[in-house]
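SAMPLE LOG
Freezer: B-3
Tube label: C17
Construct: single chain, 136 aa
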Amino acid sequence: MAESVRLTIDWREDDSPIPDAQQEAFTQAVYRSLRSIDGIRSVERIADPEAPAGAMGKHWLWSVLTAEIPGDGFRLACEEALDQLAGKPIKFKVEVEGKSGKAQTIEAENVRPDNVIHIIDKLVEAAQKLQAEDSE
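STRUCTURE (predicted):
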């Protein structure tokens, strides 16, 4: 696996009926859970690019987190995210930077618990292939 990957976990639902405060609390809970994993270098929230003009401080997107993960911690991070987000469709976006500095992205959408191992294996395989191609 790549030396390090950037993983974006997105579980937003377009028409979510969940109140804003509950969405924020849930996002914070997943954030804390991922930060507690030793193999993850960093977990960050994503700033809302459409924050109102003149807003005080940053506004964060709900239901989206990004993490920098050493390659060997990738499976664990994905599995932890799915444990925390049971039953929700998740989109994983993996960014791999090769030795030349060229970054490539791989995405998997609507990942569900029943096919997570298969999807994670495919993401790992694709990341390894991208890195191998970059080093040729």
